[in-house]
Specification:
The protein is mostly helical. The protein has one domain. It is built from 6 helices and 2 strands; from the N terminus they run αααββααα. The protein has a two-stranded antiparallel sheet. The longest helix has 18 residues.
């Protein structure tokens, strides 16, 4: 759960980026002091989110022969982090290598829907970094970066990020 000063989708994305940076820098996505410091630097633009994007590029190269979700190295296929059926773009920014089992299990869900609340800290670094970039761009395009609680569950959390990606209606 983010702190009280994380009030908007934009703030939440910066908070999640700060947790990714903490995971890389100190090996702990739950190190509150480091996360808060990094979050404040992201919010005040002392630290550009491009730092994360450069790290994503490095991780893509390192993970070129394994499933981005489980690390398995056979039956690999490209998987859309945000499914195309939910408006996810058909670009490399929205794709990771996935084994057939993980791809089928994930289905048309976003990473947080698939992992659930209990496992939200287990979303792999590369997947989460790409997801946050996609969420930022989609919320920016839809004008919802400064919105709050988009899924109307009376709390601002990672499940509000995916609301911008709608399931296709039949």
């Amino acid at each position: 759960m983010p702190p009280r000063n994380v009030r908007t989708i934009r703030d939440l994305i910066y908070w999640e980026y700060a947790k990714l940076i903490a995971g890389s820098a100190v090996g702990d996505r739950k190190n509150y002091g480091f996360i808060m410091h990094t979050y404040n630097n992201l919010k005040t633009k002392k630290l550009p989110p491009s730092t994360i994007l450069r790290e994503n590029q490095k991780l893509v190269k390192e993970a070129s022969n394994i499933c981005s979700y489980c690390g398995f190295n056979q039956d690999l296929q490209w998987e859309h982090i945000i499914p195309k059926s939910r408006g996810g773009p058909d670009t490399i920014d929205n794709m990771v290598l996935s084994c057939k089992k993980c791809n089928l299990s994930k289905g048309d869900r976003d990473p947080f829907e698939w992992y659930g609340k209990e496992r939200r800290y287990e979303v792999p670094r590369l997947v989460l970094g790409k997801y946050l970039k996609l969420a930022y761009e989609a919320h920016e395009k839809s004008g919802t970066l400064d919105s709050q609680d988009l899924n109307a569950d009376e709390t601002l959390d990672v499940f509000d990020l995916g609301v911008v990606f709608k399931k296709a209606t039949p």
